[in-house]
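Worked example 3 (structure in, sequence out).
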């Protein structure tokens, strides 16, 4: 099954965009696709314990539930090291399915077979 790569640059300042990205990632992971969310800019904070929380809109699923489903389905986060360290965040606070990894590890994970990509 083809891999899914979701690039997310937005954090909770645009919770609806974050929700859409999570919905796409959860659907891919629950379908059994190897799935990675590449978090950059303010999105790196979503990989910290207790951050992916809140409801973006009336009728939107809670982000905490989406993050839990994503993890349970085997989804992982690749967290941009430049963005993460520029914000002086603590690696010890990362959720268990996140790792500090930049563009080279992303491309290595995608490999020669390619991936379906989404960008938010």
């Amino acid at each position: 099954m083809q891999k899914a790569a979701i690039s997310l640059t937005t954090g909770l300042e645009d919770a609806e965009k974050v929700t859409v990205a999570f919905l796409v990632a959860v659907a891919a992971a629950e379908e059994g696709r190897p799935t990675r969310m590449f978090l950059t800019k303010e999105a790196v904070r979503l990989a910290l314990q207790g951050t992916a929380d809140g409801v973006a809109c009336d009728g939107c699923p809670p982000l905490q539930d989406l993050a839990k489903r994503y993890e349970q389905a085997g989804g992982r986060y690749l967290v941009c090291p430049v963005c993460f360290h520029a914000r002086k965040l603590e690696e010890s606070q990362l959720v268990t399915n996140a790792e500090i990894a930049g563009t080279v590890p992303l491309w290595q994970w995608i490999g020669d077979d390619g991936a379906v990509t989404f960008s938010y």
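Notes: Strands lie at 3-8, 35-39, 76-79, 98-100, 115-119. The chain has one domain: 3-119.
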